[in-house]
Every structure is written in structure tokens, then in C-alpha cells.
Amino acid sequence: MLASVYCESRKRPVLTLKLPKQTELVHPDHHFLFKHDLEEFYANKPIDFNTRFYKNRFATILSEVSRLQKKLQRNPSQIKILDIGCAQGNFSITLAEMGFSVVALDLRFHFLSYSRMKHEKGDLRWVNASLENLPFLSGTFDIVLATEVIEHVAYPERLLDGLKDQGSDRPRSPRLLLARAVKRARGSLLWERLWPALASLSVAVGLFLALSWAGLWIVLPPLARAFALVSLLLVMALAAIPLLRLRVPKVVSSP
Fold first, then answer.
1. Inter-residue contact 213 to 168 (CB < 8 Å)
2. Taking Cα atoms as reference points, which of 69, 84, 86 lies closest to residue 142?
3. Are residues 132 and 220 in the same domain?
4. Cβ-based neighbour number of residue 211 at 10 Å
5. pTM for the structure as a whole
6. Which of 11, 77, 118, 201 is the most exposed place for a label (fewest CB within 10 A)?
7. Are 99 and 191 in the same domain?
8. Residue range 1-12: average pLDDT?
9. 124 with 11, same domain?
10. Both 152 and 186 in a single domain?
11. With bands split at pLDDT 50, 70 and 90, how would you rate the model's confidence at 176?
12. 161, 175 in Cβ contact below 8 A?
């Protein structure tokens, strides 16, 4: 049964779903997904990061599917969607209830059984399989979802190569898209390593400039001045050590 939930980023209602009864949870995977649902999807905490992030991402995916539907110029019932790594099935169930023909795929069987508990209506089927060996013919699906999946596989480029023939709205060069994503990720990781080192060095240099501007070196006796300068130089040298040890994140390609 569908209900409305407000999404701040989109300024429009977003769909939410039935929550299983705790008495139905018979496997650790069920409890794991139930906890995530409570924290991410069903929590009424507008200032909670996990809740806002998940609901905003949920709204973005639904918006993107709607865009692709318009591009395909077909009714939802004529569009086949594959949801890889469906987990608790929130995307699969919602899209099925919106009228799409959906296949929810996951490697973990009890993830699928949890999703079944939440399903009430719509054309939805569940497949227990690995994304590295998809049991479908090329071009079976019009749209393929793989949300928060790529970071869980050892060789993402293999995943993209396997998906490029499944969806009709597929990217022309999955490896190029991956290379761009990896480049952005390397830049983010480099900045995360760089800014603490730069901050420490900036504080040391700033302290030297502040003392110089205050005229401390003029009023200090020669011995004290020398001691203070050596101390500050030592502090700046220590602050510069992390910069000398800094390494650009490497890319490990698949064999």
C-alpha cells in the first residue's frame, strides 16, 4: 500500500512502502534489512543525514526512471526494469506498484525473501543470482538499476561490461564513465589526505607571520630570538612531513 512522504530536495511527495512485521523476521538478513529500513526509509528525522540521503536518492532514481520512460515513449507496463542488488527491494517494489514490469535480483536469498514480505501488488519477480553471471539474454531489459552496487564488487569494469548489453538506454562507453568516476574519487581521496597537512603547515606559517607582524623579533634578545626562530622552523618542518609522505591514490586494474 502506497503512502506519501515529503522529500525536501524535490519538493514533492515520494512513495514509501509497507514495513514487515517483526514476527515475520526469521533470518539475520531480515533483521539487518529491517534495521536499515527503520533508519533510512521510515525514520521521521528530517535532520538525520542517513534519512535525508536515502530519501533524496530514492526520489532521484524515481525521477530518472520517469525521464527514461518518456524517452522510450512507452507505458510503464511495456517497460522491463532489472534492479541489481535489490537488497530490501524498495526500488523494485515501488516501480512495480507504479506499473513497471520489474525483476529484483540479489545474490543473497534472504534479501529477496525480505522483499517479498513487503510486496503487495504489481508485476514483480525475484531472481537469486550473481551480477557476474546474469541469467538473461542480451537486451532483455529496457532499464537497469545498479544503485550502490559498484563499490561492492572487486572489478567494477567487469560489472559495467556485463551491463552494457542489458539496458536499451545503456551508456556507449561504460569504461569511460568508470574512468571519470575513478578520477573524481582519486581527487577526493587526495584532497582528504592533503588538507590536514596543509592546515598544519598553514598554522605554523601563520604563527611565524603573526609574531613577525607583532615585532617580537625586534624586542627579543639575540639568544632568545635565535631560540624562537629555530623552534618555529622546527615546528614548520614537522608540519611539512605529512606533505612529504603524501601519495596520490593508485588505481588497481583487474587482471
1. no
2. 69
3. no
4. 15
5. 0.62
6. 11
7. no
8. 38
9. yes
10. no
11. low
12. yes
